[in-house]
Amino acid sequence: MNKYLLVCLGFISIALADDKSLYARCAVCHMPDGSGVSGVFPPIKNRMVRLATIPDGRIYLAKVLIHGLMGSIQVGGISYMGVMPPQNGAFQPKQLATLLNYLVTEIDNNVLPQDWVPYSTAEIEQLLSQPGSALSNFDLRQRLIKQYPRLMQ
What we know:
Elements: H1 2-15, H2 19-30, H3 48-52, H4 55-67, E1 69-75, E2 78-84, H5 93-107, H6 121-128, H7 134-147
Antiparallel strand pairs: 1-2
């Protein structure tokens, strides 16, 4: 009987998780303040608003969280070679939307435009229904760099 109670309590704690506790999984690599570890895990601090305010960048952020990212990238002139694992197995769509909104509104110190629309569960569910992979996200990143060179620096 106690096993079932613990399982139920586990589901309740996941359902009641706040934004910051969802980010705890990300903070293991990207650090609690989003500063990353130079040359190992890229910083995400002060990089989210720039991406989240353009349609392709917004999709990129969500897809990286959903499907991960693989390949050599440059962030702030520093090279990073590694793999960010997909997070869609760890979180439900509502939690993914909540986490993305936390990254944009709390980890990033840049000011959001007044017309910015937070990520929604429906938006995440729609992206989850599309094919994707860590490698396709790398390709999407390369396209964004060509289209918005200053955005991805």
